[in-house]
Design brief:
Elements lengths: L1 E6 L3 H17 L4 E7 L4 H4 L7 E4 L12 H22 L3 E6 L1 H12 L4 E5 L6 H6 L5 E4 L5 H5 L5 E4 L14 H7 L8 E6 L6 H12 L7 E6 L5 H4 L7 E4 L6 H6 L2 E4 L3 H10 L3 E3 L9 H11 L3 E3 L7 H13 L1 H14 L4 H16 L1 H4 L4
Parallel strand pairs: 1-2, 1-4, 2-3, 4-5, 5-6, 6-7, 8-9, 8-11, 9-10, 11-12, 12-13
Length: 375
């Protein structure tokens, strides 16, 4: 039985699909996930290294600021539609899981026209354009943030479920904290570990503030830092490695970093915040102000209101402000404990398994697993 997964362009839209697909295979070994992505997206590098069959199509976003380039979008959509038609005849997909981004829109449109059931997984607290467009046609919508429910529910009759974002859950039992700290070269006990990261490409504003904070001698004696700069920025900051600071270009997997961390400095992307909450790590969130529809600010606001994080706007991020926030967490244990509890309350480490179980039930309910729905 074939289930299509449509989403990509960025890791935030691709990795949730991978997590759901793996959980679905565990739930239903008779399912074969098939990924549909964009040849220009991150999936061109990620999908070939996975266990899943896939196709990369000439898909493009809407060029809002450069509308004269939308001929590429139209040309790519026409060729991709024909390709999807051939695939559907060969595979007869039972269902399409859409995880958002421009890379998912055409497959969701094809499924809607040809009456192939669709479900959606929305990562952010404010739904993206693709999710809003197809909510009316979806059987179910799975929310990473419950705050997105109002916007999604307003667009159609789909069952809207607060599942959380599908991530790689923390292992059980969790790694021993003392042993993990020792692996990083830190004392096994005492002090606090700050995990700083801004995604695979890093975050210039976070990196600069952190560098000035460390280089300016403000790093408290009892704070240790695990700092992922982003691959393209590593050479700029690698000289700041020292006894209390570990500088890395990228952390993958992040299990050993999360296991060692007492608190974090990070962007407010949906998947990164989902992982921090699943691990119960208090975070200082600095949203990317240029993110689409400013969704990272909405994410940070939602988590701050829930008592799961501190929202620090990028315009206010200075070495001095960073120092104040860190010292507040160090000195006021009640604040740290309250944020940790808030993070745990928002965490959904089993989201992928919950979504997979619902997709499996939907396949049974629609009878799609017996018939297929391709045209």
């Amino acid at each position: 039985m074939n289930v299509w997964f449509a989403g990509g362009g960025t890791g935030g839209h691709l990795y949730p699909g991978l997590a759901i697909a793996r959980a679905l295979v565990r739930e239903r070994p008779d399912v074969t996930p098939f990924f549909i992505g964009a040849a220009r997206g991150i999936e061109r590098d990620v999908l070939p290294a996975t266990e899943f069959p896939h196709v990369l199509l000439d898909l493009h976003p809407l060029y809002r600021s450069r509308p004269w380039q939308n001929w590429k979008t139209l040309r790519g959509a026409r060729s991709a539609w024909a390709h999807l038609a051939r695939l559907a005849r060969e595979q007869r997909p039972a269902l399409v899981v859409g995880t958002g981004g421009y890379a998912s829109a055409l497959a969701l449109a094809y499924a809607t026209v040809h009456r192939i059931p669709i479900v959606l997984q929305e990562q952010n607290s404010f739904p993206g354009l693709t999710m809003r467009l197809f909510a009316r046609a979806a059987r179910e919508v799975y929310l990473g943030f419950p705050e997105a429910g109002g916007a999604m529910g307003a667009h159609g009759p789909a069952t809207v479920v607060d599942t959380g974002n599908p991530i790689e859950a923390p292992p059980s039992p969790r790694p021993d904290r003392a042993a993990v700290r020792a692996e990083w070269g830190f004392p096994p006990g005492g002090g606090r570990v700050l995990l700083a990261f801004g995604g695979s490409q890093g975050a210039y504003a976070l990196n600069e503030a952190l560098a000035a904070w460390i280089d300016g001698g403000r790093l408290p004696d009892d704070v240790y830092v695990i700092w992922a700069t982003g691959r393209g920025s590593y050479d700029r900051y690698r000289h700041l490695e020292r006894q209390h600071v570990r500088v890395r270009p990228y952390l993958a997997p992040m299990t050993q970093a999360y296991a060692a961390a007492d608190f974090a400095l990070a962007r407010a992307g949906a998947m990164g915040t989902a992982e921090l909450c699943a691990w119960g790590i208090p975070a200082i969130l600095v949203p990317l102000p240029t993110a689409a529809a400013d969704h990272q600010t909405v994410n940070a606001d939602a988590l701050a209101r829930a008592g799961a994080a501190i929202h620090l706007p990028q315009r206010e991020l200075t070495p001095e402000r960073l120092d104040r926030e860190v010292r507040r967490l160090l000195e006021d244990t009640a604040v740290s404990e309250r944020l940790a509890a808030g993070a745990v309350a928002r965490g959904r480490p089993d989201a992928a398994a919950v979504i997979a179980a619902r997709v499996s039930a939907l396949l049974d309910a629609t009878g799609a697993h017996r018939q297929g729905a391709g045209r």
